[in-house]
Structures are given as structure tokens and as C-alpha cells.
Amino acid sequence: MKWTLTLLIICLASDLVSSETNLPPVFTQTLNNIVLYENKPVGSVVFRLKGYDPEESNVTFGSIGSDHFSVDPISGNITLIKPLDREETDSLTFLVSIRDRVDPNGESEQDNVVEQPITFIILDENDNPPEFQNTPYEADVNEDAAVGTTIFDKILVKDRDTIGDSLDLKCVPQQQSPEACSKFHLQLLTREPTILTAAVVLNDTLNYNQRMIYHFQIEASDGVHKTQTTFEARVKDVQDKPPVFQRSLSTVIDEDSPINTLVLTVQARDGDKGEPRKIVYDLLSNPNDYFLLDANSGELRTAKPLDREALTDSTGLISLVVRAREVVNDVPSDDPLTSATARATVTIRDVNDSPPKFNKKEYDVSLLENTPEGTPLALDMSVSDADVGINSKFALRLEDVSGVFDVEPKLVTGYSQVNIRVANGTLDYENPNQRKFIVLVIAEETETNPKLSSTATITVSVLDANDNKPSFEQESYSATVSEAALPGQYITTITAKDVDSSSFGDAGIRYSLSGTGAELFHVNEQTGVITLGDCQSESNRRQRRDLHENDSDGHALEMLSMEAEHSLDQRQINTEPTVQYTLITQAPLQSETAATAAEAAEAGTAATSAVAAAAANDDKAASSKAPATCLDYETETTYFLSYKATDDNGQGQTSVVSLRISVSDANDSPPVCESPLYRASVDEGSLVFDSPLVVKARDADTMSSISYRIIGSPQIESIFDIDKRSGQISIRPNASLDVTNLKSEQLIFVVEANDGLFTANCGVNITVRDVNNHVPNFQQQNYSAVVEENSEIGTSVEKLQATDLDTGKNAELRYRIQQGSFNDFDIDERTGEVFVSRKLDYDRRNTYHLQVQAADLGTPSLTGTATLTINVQNSNYTLYILASIKADLHISEEERASFSIKTLNRDNTVAKVAITVLDVNDNAPVFEKPVYYAGVNANAKMNAAITMVNATDADQGKNAKIEYMIVASNLYKFGATKSTGSIVPSPFAISQDGRITANTIMAEYNQDRFELEIVARELEQPQRSANTKVNIWVFDGTQLVRVILSRPPEEVYQEQEEIIAELRNATQHRIIVDEIRFHLDSIGRIRMDWCDLYFHAVDPQSQQIAPVDEILKDIDRNYDYLKDYYAGFAIENVVPAYIAIVQDEFDLAVAGLVALVIVLFVGVISFIVLCCCLKHWNLSVPVETRRKEALIKKQIIEDLNTTENPLWIEQKLKLYEEQELTMQVFSEPDHISNSDAPGHLDHRSSLEQVHHGQSVDNTYATIQPRNNQNRLTAGSGGNGGGGSISMRSGGAASGGGIGGAGLLLTRIDPHGNDFADYATLRNNRAPSMYEFTGSTFQAPIRDGDDAVAELI
Question: Which terminus in the chain has less CB density within 10 A, N or C?
Fold first, then answer.
């Protein structure tokens, strides 16, 4: 028992001792003299504390007394949190601590804390510019100083940095003194690492009279930083020039002037302007001793009475010789270098004084802001007074509202150099009021009366200096980037502001990133745009899994690697692109696929994004891995960086803010294009596609939002735009869709569908159809030529050339002579060469005005005209007269035949007489036709061409010039036989070449007819004239007939008159051709070898446009007559140009029967209800009920007292009106038939539309018809032909032969499209039938509106 108790006591004592002897933790490093550079980036780990606890418990670290560093308690990393500056302190010492943890549950009082000092030694970096001491620098130097003279030796430059290149100085010339650095040079006296002294030494001879002040900049550099200061050298004058007389020595004085009258004052100044000597005067010649000259003042006075008659010179001129001498050592000098003579003339009169004058009226000078006080402005400014004595004394002062500048000297006698200095305060460029000063310098005489004065203006421009740091709007910034982002991904933009200007301000700010992970990001040093950088090592990359799935069409979708490089130039280019999926970021970077597609589209080839896809498929083995990314959300979610902005292009002052970049997770499903290739066609110049072009892609991720963008050349992107949400491609409003400017008619590019992480490249192939929209242009508008009367047939006269900017057939030109040739000349239709076609006769016609037309082969064909004036040179009327002494001279026919022209020209007895016949204005103009017929679409715009008239004059030269005028525009309203009068101003205009165009909007004259009276009048007296008439019908698009011919337009133009004649014979109507253009087949393709001829027919009796169905019936009736011509002219079909609606008429008898049944039914029901209620008829209505009804009526009346839309004001009281409105809207289509399809529902203000005696009721003017969305499918019958044509509203359909063809037609609006637009013939869905444009009401579209008609 005793031993047991003893053992227990020993154990307890051992435990007690062990618990009371816990040893403190220990640092395992030396913490003194740790070296750091002062440019160490904030956020860098500069040291790591290490230590341990003897009991092997966990230890934590800390710091005490440091605002530059922070200590991570776990890792012991010491991080720099504040920038270092060695110039402020060269070492930093603070305490670091290490703590053990006795209690595993947390800190306790039993924990041991050991504190130990740590010292960091800060090493210098070259981050401070040199500094000039004791500025400003200035010195005086005599003009005769020897070259090599030291004029200033107090230049002192210091640098706060101890490292860097040695200090150096450089002379920088200024605009005011460009040769200063050649006159002086800088000589280094002493050079130490941080201090430099230098002197300014004369390098060339000086001349006070050439320049009195030199300014230049002294630039100090330490290899990185530069500083400048101004040096001013003032040149002192040396006595080496004789006196110079200042003013005129001629005067006029009255003859009776008393003795001692001042005649003139001789003034001379020392030629040396710096320190002028005193001048004394004397007379060397004084005729008759008339005058006395004061030696000091130079005053010339009368010495005795003057007698003009006693002078030898009758003009009264007295000539004096005056000498001016400098006073040297109080003695006038006779040396030629110190004296001068001048001749003075006195005729007799008085003297004028001069005010002080500056050497210039205006001065401009620039200086840096923060210029020290006392710094002189770099001005070459002087002031002088031509007077002498007290008249040359004047004062200088400034009118300076800013009070910044001062002038010296204050008082001047005669002449002085003027200095303007900075006097008060420092200049600040950032203050807009101190960027420019306008100072007025005034020189005013002090001892004269009146006090003459003059002024000069000094404009001082303050230049900016780098005295402000860049500043950020926030103290810290944050941004987010997806972990799937690729190099170049845009993250954010952080910019700073600097109130300085130029490179010292915003333009010179450069940005950089530092800190852990900064190498993963890239910042544009100029714009501040932060993007994801390139991966620097494989450890920074991660691979995404491959994604494989099949779309609905069975195309395999494969993720392609961004690192795969494909040699695309050696691969075959396909026109059917496959779908490609690529990892992308939000940065506007193009993959190789998109770049290749864009280049192919720009070059006009058929290459698409299939090139890149094909290359990717070929290199599938090399790119089986997914694209590598630099970020990994699972490894690092946040990066804490330092963002630095430095001005002066990265060499100036710096500001730093913290930047937090968070990494976000991403989805992993790519979008899928619904179609690998989208096709569309569009006419050049169009702003809309034939049918909407929408690119669609779908994404399996519901969280993804797909956006679309066009990847192509800049030309593609300037033409097309895409809705980034819907994917609908549209043509930009200001785009120039011109085949002439494009390199190909096939525009192939890629639309990128982007879900934020993946993209699908969908190919787009747009065919731009060339539209004939360029008029042929001749090189000249007027040509002239001369041809001999006896020229042979076929002789070339002139070659006319025209150009057309279109392409293909639209650019092929054919030439023809419209008028003026009188069959004497012809033209080669391909070359434009005009030649003689038959024998010319000067007596019959000696001048021709040929109107030559160049027409392209486009549809519609466009033409350009030029005038060729041909003068026929007379070859006749040459007489030979023989002189003879024989009185009975007779020459027989045999003798006459024996004479030759050569013999007669040599015979001196024969005189040659040439007779020239002069033209006389004896012919009147003549029109080609007495009456012209034409038509114009009611939708035609201003200046639309209608027709052309032509008149010729048989006279020559100016006698053949004529002008055209419209003297009357008689309007015949629809159905009227009498004119309502001439419209003033005329709705039409005529050019001087006879072209008639629309001068207003023709919609208001729809279905009317105009009869224009045209006059062609000579410009020369007696101004004869000719008259013609032009009948113009304003037609609607539905009134045109389309003739489909299997021949190209150029051949149809040649046989146009024959076709018109046969149609006129068959229909007995006047046929007026409106247009000929290329044919479009059923799928919207242009047939270049076919064409469509559009015409309207006019009833010769009523002069009204005949209905289309009537013309077609006439043609059908005469099919047997026309069938031979069909084959000869290659006529395939004759159909309406536009389809109208056909609906069953409403049976009034059935309607009446239904109404009678409804009335009887209502009557029976009413009778039953009345019988059931008879027993209650005498009961009174409760008072409470009447009160409620009264309140309801009052509330309704109050509700009516509003400013609501009048259409809805009485809806609560008159619901039946809404029913009536609805019935009106829904019943309106029933009134439209095939014969009364309206051209426009509101061509006139009365809203009347007359067709075959019917009118369309339109109760509410705000309800307008829209284009229907129906399509027409028609088949052929009759002659056994087959086929179908799908057309949009406003288009045309043909089926089989003429006889027996039946068509079921659907509702259209022919006015929604211009007649001359090819879009009227292609498939397109138009808006719905009716809309209410005046309010929010819109009639619903019924199921019956959309229908497909088939030929039975």
C-alpha cells in the first residue's frame, strides 16, 4: 500500500511538471537586412516566415507596426500592400510574431507569443527625373565677345536617384531662336552620379543688330527621365557705329518768320543701340548765315530776317550741311566712326512729331505651366521714339487683368529692348482661364502735350506640363470571366483620367497588371481593355471533354480544337458548308473558319465556311482534344491583382488600384444550325429580301441564350445586318448593294450562332441579281463632224462611245440613230461608228443633227443619248473663167471635155471662182409623229421617265436648234369625254432632248387621262414651231397584261411594232407597251433568254383603259388567228400581270329568307316572355332599385366627360356602334371582285374608287387594306400543258395555253409594290388583309383568308 501511494504521487508530480514547462515557438530564419527594390509590385510575396513549436503544435504568424506589409497567419507569407519609395525611407523595420497553440480549440492565455524585429533594406530604382537648381538661368554677353567665352557657369542639376545612367545635358532650340544652339554650347564642369554642373560657352560671333536676345531649352537626362529649363542670353551693344540721323531734314517756313523761330530740330542717334552716346550738332554750311544750330538740342532757328527774293534759287530752297558728332570723354569726336553729316533743306514750313513705336504690333509666345517667377518671355521686342530729348521720353506699362506679367524697363528714352517677365503666381494649364493670356503693352510719352502713345499685343499660350497623376473613378474594381474563355476574351475596361493634356494626359496613359496570376491576363496598354492572355505553360491549361451528338438530320457534330492549324490554301473549296462548332469567347475574334469564309466572300468566290470545316474534318486526328483554356474554376475562383496607370507614355507618374477578377462556371452544350446552308436572292439596290431570311440554331441548354452575328469581310458587314436574337438577316438602310461594286454576284459568308460558350457556323449564300440601274453615258453629249459631199458610201464619219456601269447583259450596248439621219447615215449597232449610207447632196441637205441612242440589253432597257452634228462640205460650184481678147470666144463641148482640173489650175488665163451657199432659216421643225401615246403607273415617283418626243429641223447650225415646251396639260377625268381644263403647274416636265417625265406624284390622277400639247420652237428668228399631242393614261398595276415570250428582250425590241400591230388587230384596242423585262420562272429565277412584255389596252371609243379580262377574252376568241404569230414571235402565254380576287357574290334572296326566319323567331320568344310577365305588370319598382339605377347613370355620364379617343367615347352606352363597325370591316372584302380590285383605296380625298360602275364603301377612313399573305398555285389545262407557278400577291401566274385556261385567284394588293420592281414577281408573304391604322383596333384574320387554289 505504501509503495502504491508513492508511485501515484510520483506520477502526479510528473504530469504537473510537464504541464508547466510548455516551451515557446522558435523562428528558424535570420530576419535582418532583407533586400527589396523600391519598384516591387504591390501584392507581391516578398518573404516567408518559418518557425516551429518544440511541442509540435500548430503555429501562426503575425505582424506589428507595419503599414507596408501584411503577414498571412497560416503560410507566413509577407505580402507588399503599399508602394515603396526609397527617397522617403531606405529601410523598414517592424515586429513579426509567432504563436503556438496549447489549446487545440483556439487561442488561449497559455499560448506562447514570440516577437522579433525584421528589417527590409530598400534598394533604389531610377524613378525620379533630374532637377535644375537656382532657375531661371540668364546671362548678358557683349556682342564683341570672343568665341569660347564662358557667359554663364551656374547650371546645377541634381538627381534624387543613386542609380541609372550618368546625368547629361543637351541644348534644345526654340522657335523664337532656332540658331541659339549653334551660337552657344553647353560645357560640363563636373559630373557625379547625382549632381552635375555646367557652363554656357559662346560658340559663334554675335551681332547686336541682328539679334539681341537668344532663348533655348536646356534638357537634362538620366537615361530614362528628362527635364527642361529655359536659358536666356542677352546681347549687349558695343560702340562701333557712327550716329544715324533720325528724321527728315527738309522743312518749309514762312518768309516773315521772326528771328529765333524754330525751323527744324536735327535729331540723330548713336548707331550703337545698347549704350548710346550723347550727340552734339554743328553746321558745316550755312548760306547767308540765316540759321543758328543748337549744339545740344539740335534746334535750327532763324538768325536774321529771311528774304526769299534775295535767294539765288527761285524756289526759295536753302541747302544746309549738318554734322552730328558723338561725345567721347566729354569731347565731340571728329572721327568718321563717331560723326556723320547730312544735308538739310529749308524751303520754309513746320515739323511733325512721332509717337513711340514697337518693332511689331502683335507677338506670340509660349511657355510651360508652373514657370518660376521672374522668368522672361522669349520675345524679340523693342520700342523706339523717333523724337529726341524730352519728346523721346516715354513710359511702358501693361494692361494685364490677370496681373501675372510685368514689363521692364518702366521708363525709356529714345529706344530700348523690352522684357516681359512672369511676375505674380504660378501658371496652371489645367485652369482654363490660364491657358491663354492677351496682354496689352502701352508706350506713352511722359513729358509732351499731347502725350502720344502706341500699343502692342502679346498673346501668351501656356503649355501643359506633367504635374498631375492619373486618377481612377474607383478605389477598386472587380470583373468576371468564364472559365471556358479563350485567349483574347474581353473581360472589362478600366481607364483612368489625367487632367493634363497630350501625352501627359489621357492620351499618354499606359496600363499594366501585376500580382499573382497576372500572366493569365492581357491589358491593352493604351485602351485599358483587359482580355484573357495566352497560356504560358501546360500547367495553366485545361482540356474540355469532347461532345458528340447527332442532330435531327443525322449530321455528326464534333467539337474542334482551337489549337489545330489547317493549311486551307491547298484544299478544295466547297459550296455546301457543313456545320462547325468551336469554343469561343465574347471577344470579336474570328476563327480560321470565319476568316476563310470572309476572305472567300470578299474575293467573290464560292467558298464558304465549309473550307474550315473540311480542313477540320481532315485533321480530326490532330485536333481530337478540346480547346485548351487558361482558367479553371475548380482550381482558382478569384484573382487579386494590382492595376497600374502611368502617364507620359508609361514614363511619367503612376497610380495603382486593386482589381478582383472572378472566374465563373460555363455550360457545355453547343448550338446546332437547323440548316447547314441558307440561300436567298435579292435584287441589287433592294432593301428587303424576296422572303425573310432567318438563320436559326437551337441549343440543348435551356439556360443558354443564342445570339447571332455575321462573320465576313468589312464589305459584307457594311451591307448586311442581323438581329442578334431572332437571327433575321436584313439589308442595312444605307447599304450600297450594287453588283458593279461587288466582286461577285454570290455573297457567301458565315453567321455565327453563339450561346456564350460554343458557336455554330451556319453558311449563308446570297445571290445578288444585277438590276439594270445604270444609264449608258456617252463620253460627250455633243459631237460634231464634217464630211465631203462626194464621200463614198460606207465612209466613216464619227465613232461614238458610251459606257454602262452594269454587268452582263445589262452592260451590253446597242447603238441606233433615233432621228435626224434622213437615211443618209447609218450606225454600227455594236461599235457606234457612224458612216455614210447613201450618196450625199449638199443642195438637198447640208447639215444633219443625228440623235444617237445607246441602249443596254437589260430589262427594262435604259438608254442614253448624244447629238452628232454633221456638216456636209460642198464639192460643187467651182467656176473656171477663161480670159481672151477674142470678142466672139466660144468653147465647144469637145474643147470643154479636153480640159483637166490640173491644166486649168496651171493656166494663168483661167480664174478659179469658188461659190459658197449660205444657209437661211427657211425650214420649220417637224415632229416624227403627229400624236404620241404613253402610260404611267399611278405609283410612279417624281422624275419617272414616261416617253420621248422628237422633232427635227432641216436647217443648218444654229438655225436647226430647237426647244421643247409643254403649253397645255389637259386633264380628262375617269369616264369623262370633256377636259376639265389644263393643269397648272403641269404634272409633267419635258427636257431639251424631248424626254417627258413625271413632275409630281401621279397617285391622285389614277385612271385619268392627260392630253399634252407639245411645241417644238426654233431658237433663231423667225422662231418657227411645230405642234404634237401626247396622250398619257395613268394606270393601275392590275390593268396590265403580261405577254411571256421565249426570246431575249433585245429581239423583242426589234419586233415590238409587229407584235403591237397583231395584238391591235386581234383586240381592236390601242396597245401601249409599258415595259419589257426578263422573265422569272416559277421558283423565282431570272430567265435571260425569255422576257415579259407588259402593256395596257385603251378602248378607242371611250379612251378608257380596257379591263384585263376583256382583253384576254378577245385574245382567246382570236386564238386561231394569232396562233401562227405565237410561233413566229415565240409567244408562250398571255396572262394578267397581277392577280385579283374572285369571290362568290352574296345571294340577297337567301339573306332575306334568313332575316325573315330570325324575325319570326324573335317575335315568338317575345310573345311568350310577355305572357309570362303579365301578372307582374302592375308591381312598382322598389325605391332602392331606382336609386341604384340613377347612380349607375350618373357614373356613366361622368365617365363620358373625358378626353379619350372619340372612337371609344360612347362604348358603354352604344355598344351597337361597335357591332356596326365590326360588320363594316368584315363585310368589306365581299364587295371586291375580279373586275373591281382597287388600284388604290384612297387615291382621292373622296375615297372613291370606280370600277365598272361599282364603288367600295369605306365608312371609317382609318381602316386600310393590307396585302394578303396568300399564295397562288395554278395548273395548266386547255391545251394539255402542265406546270405550276407559286407566286406572291402582286405577281403573275400562267398556265398552259390560252384557250380553256381556268384560274382560281386569291386576294392581293397590287399597290404594295412598285411596278418596275422584280419583287412583284417573286414568292413573298405580305401583311394581312386589313388593319386599323388610326387606333389600336385590328380586325382579326379569318381562317378563310389563307387558301390554295388549284386548277380543276
Answer: N
